[in-house]
Amino acid sequence: MIPLTLSSPSLNRLVFFTSRYSRSPFLRNFNSLPLIHRKLPHNNHLLGVRCEASSSSSSSGSSSSSFTAKPSKEIRKAARVEVAVDEKLSALRRRFSNPGVGIDAYIIPSQDAHQSEFIAECYARRAFISGFTGSAGTAVVTKDKAALWTDGRYFLQAEKQLNSNWTLMRAGNPGVPTASEWVADVLASGGRVGIDPFLFSADAAEELKEAIAKKNHELVYLYNVNLVDEIWKYSRPKPPSKQIRVHDLKYAGVDVASKLSSLRNAIMDAGASAIVISMLDEIAWVLNLRGSDVPHSPVMYSYLIVEVDQAQLFVDDSKVNEEVKDHLKNAGIELRPYDSILQEIDSLASRGAQLLMDPSTLNVAIVSTYKSACEKYSRKPESKENSKTKSTDGSSGYP
């Protein structure tokens, strides 16, 4: 595939996907961070010794001091700490057996649906379920265990914020498993590991799937429900709603029409029909728009599909004012609801579209939807042909 010549730094990581989908593995080269397992002690109490000074009058009139130590039985009793029930973990585990779920473990990453490191407060699911608020980390919850992986920047913070129900997994210390290795080991053979497919890149999901398959486990995509959101409910912060704004041309340097033209040339050179973009900074750059959805980042939650002859921006239209609408209309860009992205991917597959997508950043919900739709629509002509053949053979055309 010919790489894009645009100056956007991350639009060159593209993989060509075709509706003539190959059954051979296509998601590779994902390097897992070696994350380390270390159980925290339940209690760090020092061995307590009580010192009592008592005065007594001896025959000589001198004073003496006596020291009494607690019996070891009492010390062990004091050191014992009851593990408090974590209501969030209990509620999460109860949902493992819900209809349509049926899992043995659930993985909660830090990212949002766009693989952002820094995210809106309403998407901080890992922080909510674990209590750990660092920007990087992955939580894994089984029916009887809970573990959190993070890197060396956050070891001290995680020690303070995780309660006794959680085991801290320290990245950077040698000789311990990654999250995928750990969950594969702790589950009985034939376990089902659930994820929200919107929160994992296609590469990451494929890597996880391959790792747990070695121990005969299955990766389950829960498209219709995020189990943490079900617990969070009414206390969950509302999605960001600040208005999107136009980034003036004098600051942007290149207008939207020129960027789209260069992008379309690259699409055609690659023999593709369209490109799907989910990285928020890339969308903001291509469209000369800015937002306030993520703290300290001028981006807005959205997806962008650019075809050879049209383009669609998937965004919450309540954040789009008249100026932005005119700006997009002049560039030939249609507005679509943010949560209708999968329907459009399915529609593209039904039309035989060949897509450019980056599996290292695009969530597996989109990639998997496209793959399944391609297989579904590619079987239809074959089914009709088989039906005709059976009819000419004198059969009814039904199995």
UniProtKB/TrEMBL annotation:
Top-level taxon: Eukaryota
GO molecular function: hydrolase activity; metal ion binding
Pfam families in UniProt: Creatinase_N (PF01321), Creatinase_N_2 (PF16189)
Record's compositionally biased regions (Basic and acidic residues): 376-391
Keywords assigned: Hydrolase, Metal-binding
InterPro entries tied to this protein: Creatin/AminoP/Spt16_N, Creatinase_N, X-Pro_aminopeptidase_P
Start and end residues of each Creatinase N-terminal domain: 102-215
Region annotation Disordered: where it falls in the sequence: 376-399
Family: Belongs to the peptidase M24B family.
PANTHER family: XAA-PRO AMINOPEPTIDASE 1
Full protein name: Creatinase N-terminal domain-containing protein
Annotated source species: Brassica carinata
